[in-house]
Every structure is written in structure tokens, then in C-alpha cells.
Amino acid sequence: MCAIFGCDFGVAYGPRVNGFIHVHHVTPLHQSGESYSVNPTTDLIPVCHNFHAVIHSRKEPMSIEAMRQLLNQDGEQQRV
């Protein structure tokens, strides 16, 4: 399930895509160094592929919180 939007592909699109998700590294791998060992629980966040692309659409990746705020702002602008 996407940590940003809560979308579950299996529920939305059927069993063929059940469990399909991208994972976002909280700290980009190029910044963590070779000796760093990734902890899947704290270092990886499940996100849908569309939001993952948006997160990485800038030179510095957006934080998950910044992505949520962006969605909230866009939603408010559409409701006006």
C-alpha cells in the first residue's frame, strides 16, 4: 500500500497487480556510503510508481511529508 496516498493496487486494479509497489529510499543510496546497511523497516517507504516519479522529479528528492503537503495543496486548490 502506498504510504502517501494509501492506494493498494490489488484492490484498485485486481489480483494480477496485488502487492505491486515501489520502494523509496529515505536516504538516497549515493549519500549513504558503501558501508551503510539498509534497514528495510526504517530506510524504505512503499510508494506507488507515480508518486515515486514525482518525488524524484527534482534535483533533491522530496520528502514523503513534502509530497503529502503538495497533494493537500493541490486538493485544496481544486476544491476552490
Keywords, separated by commas or semicolons:
10% strand; 45% helix; mainly alpha; 80 residues; two-stranded antiparallel ribbon
Report on this model:
There is one protein chain. This protein is mostly helical and 80 residues long. It has 5 helices and 2 strands. The chain has one domain (9-79). It has helices at residues 9-13, 29-32, 40-43, 49-55, 64-79, and strands spanning 22-25, 44-47. The longest helix has 16 residues, at 64-79.
Gap between N and C termini, in Å? 29 Å
Summarize the main sheet.
Answer: 2 strands, antiparallel
Strand content: 5-15%
Estimated radius of gyration: 14 Å
- The general outline is globular
Number of helices: 5
Structural class: mainly alpha
Q: What count of domains describes the coordinates?
A: 1
For the largest sheet, list the strands in their spatial order.
Answer: 1-2
**Helical residues, percent:** 40-55%
- Beta-strand segment tally: 2
Which residues sit in consecutive blocks of at least 5 with pLDDT less than 50?
A: none
The sequence of SSEs as H and E is: HEHHEHH
| Mean of residue pLDDT values | 84
